[in-house]
Amino acid sequence: MTTFDLPDLGEGLTEATLLSWLVDEGDMIEVDQPIAEVETAKSSIEVPSPYAGIVVRLHGAVGETLIVDEPLITVDTDGGGGFDDAAGPSAAAGSSAGALSYREEERAGTAVPADGGGEETLQDTGDEGSGNVLIGYGTSASAGARRRRRRAGGPNQPPTGPRAGSALAVAERPAQKAPRVSSPLVRRLAREHSVPLTGLTGTGPDGLIVRADVLAAVESRGAAPAQDQQTAQAPASTGPVSASPSLPAPGGLEIRERVPVTGIRKAVATTLSRSRREIPEATVWQDVDATELLALRARLKRQAEAEGSSAPSLLALIGRFVLAGLSRHPELATRVDTREDGEQEIVHFDGVNLGFAAQTDTGLVVPVVLHAERLSARELHGEIGRLVGAARDGSISGKELTGGTFTVNNYGVFGSDGATPIINHPEVAILGIGRILDRPWAVDGELTVRSITTLTLAFDHRVCDGGTAGGFLNFVARCVEDPTTALADL
């Protein structure tokens, strides 16, 4: 047997929450077949198996936190089913003669009866991997993998009915494959409505199960609505823990439920708590007249509609102003590194990876545009749209959520006039954009109505002083107030 550990999930990720098992103990699995869906601090992903064989043991329950490099699944790759001690000599002999390897079975689609008992069994002819990659891990050769044998009836074993889990039991039924689903969010929707994916026929390309298939199944049986979003984010097996009616609470209130802090919510809490703990943060802000920027955006939009293209969004235009400001004040796109001797140094980078805070159904994430300084406003608009869309449908990769050196947070879309954003550790600065409101404003000594927004910059006082921060913020503000002149210099 071979035990497969939870693989490396990307830079800095050491744990994941188990959302669902896609296989059961006793199932026959193939190389690269998805075996589990896990939620990391970055996104939900499916973990493929690097081995083919019979599932002997699933390590962990749904809702449990799994640690990288600890056991995930145990697979019997030689067809013994993990019960060779109980099966007797004839079964052991049958597993060593006349059987096809899983590679041969994949090609032929059959199993050959073994000599001696007429039983169908499987054996592994090698530890060949697929080469496919899951965020930093490849299903390469498993020469160094751990192997162990367990006696039937021992702890944590599958049910031990007649020939339970054996190769014969597997051969007597079709090999099970996890249903093909368009995204983890579709799996979550099915889980919330208790819709078994194995019973659905996908209407997507090549039979792919899509959101509409799950909703149609829910409607056809009159399923109850999905649970409250906050409750839905709690792992299904643990669920909210209802308190006893007699349990005292502050102010005489009763505890209604307890929701575990896991996955993305846990990652956000960890990052922001570390930011507050380690960074000596300071904040500067400025009210800015965005009337001319709105006028420019309207002209670009009319022109794009006439050409059948798309115009840069306000966020993309301000993003270009931010990148220009960072070229003049590069201290704000650095990181503070602590060496082994305890001394700190400011690390400068060649370019800017620009992050944009985005709200999704599973929490706040920050997709990152790599080398954003190389993109025009229109190209930046396209990349922001792609990344935010991928984040909201659950298809974004871990690589696209890491490596930022400066973040822009447009909390104005939520109706906030202003805020004091928390720096996205290990970055050293973040720019917040409030909503744009019509307000009285003095122009050339006369009072008039203008479109005003508030820009707020939070920065790490270790990397620069108020002069640098104020200079950067003032530059971005001038670009917003006079974008035509600013764009001529960008």
From TrEMBL:
<dbReference type="Pfam" id="PF00198">
    <property type="entry name" value="2-oxoacid_dh"/>
</dbReference>
<dbReference type="InterPro" id="IPR011053">
    <property type="entry name" value="Single_hybrid_motif"/>
</dbReference>
<feature type="compositionally biased region" description="Acidic residues">
    <location>
        <begin position="117"/>
        <end position="127"/>
    </location>
</feature>
<dbReference type="InterPro" id="IPR003016">
    <property type="entry name" value="2-oxoA_DH_lipoyl-BS"/>
</dbReference>
<feature type="region of interest" description="Disordered">
    <location>
        <begin position="79"/>
        <end position="187"/>
    </location>
</feature>
<protein>
    <recommendedName>
        <fullName>Dihydrolipoamide acetyltransferase component of pyruvate dehydrogenase complex</fullName>
        <ecNumber>2.3.1.-</ecNumber>
    </recommendedName>
</protein>
<dbReference type="Pfam" id="PF02817">
    <property type="entry name" value="E3_binding"/>
</dbReference>
<feature type="compositionally biased region" description="Low complexity">
    <location>
        <begin position="223"/>
        <end position="236"/>
    </location>
</feature>
<dbReference type="InterPro" id="IPR050743">
    <property type="entry name" value="2-oxoacid_DH_E2_comp"/>
</dbReference>
<feature type="domain" description="Lipoyl-binding">
    <location>
        <begin position="1"/>
        <end position="76"/>
    </location>
</feature>
<keyword id="KW-0450">Lipoyl</keyword>
<feature type="region of interest" description="Disordered">
    <location>
        <begin position="221"/>
        <end position="255"/>
    </location>
</feature>
<dbReference type="InterPro" id="IPR023213">
    <property type="entry name" value="CAT-like_dom_sf"/>
</dbReference>
<dbReference type="InterPro" id="IPR036625">
    <property type="entry name" value="E3-bd_dom_sf"/>
</dbReference>
<keyword id="KW-0808">Transferase</keyword>
<dbReference type="InterPro" id="IPR000089">
    <property type="entry name" value="Biotin_lipoyl"/>
</dbReference>
<dbReference type="Pfam" id="PF00364">
    <property type="entry name" value="Biotin_lipoyl"/>
</dbReference>
<keyword id="KW-0012">Acyltransferase</keyword>
<dbReference type="InterPro" id="IPR004167">
    <property type="entry name" value="PSBD"/>
</dbReference>
<comment type="similarity">
    <text>Belongs to the 2-oxoacid dehydrogenase family.</text>
</comment>
<feature type="domain" description="Peripheral subunit-binding (PSBD)">
    <location>
        <begin position="181"/>
        <end position="218"/>
    </location>
</feature>
<dbReference type="InterPro" id="IPR001078">
    <property type="entry name" value="2-oxoacid_DH_actylTfrase"/>
</dbReference>
<feature type="compositionally biased region" description="Low complexity">
    <location>
        <begin position="84"/>
        <end position="99"/>
    </location>
</feature>
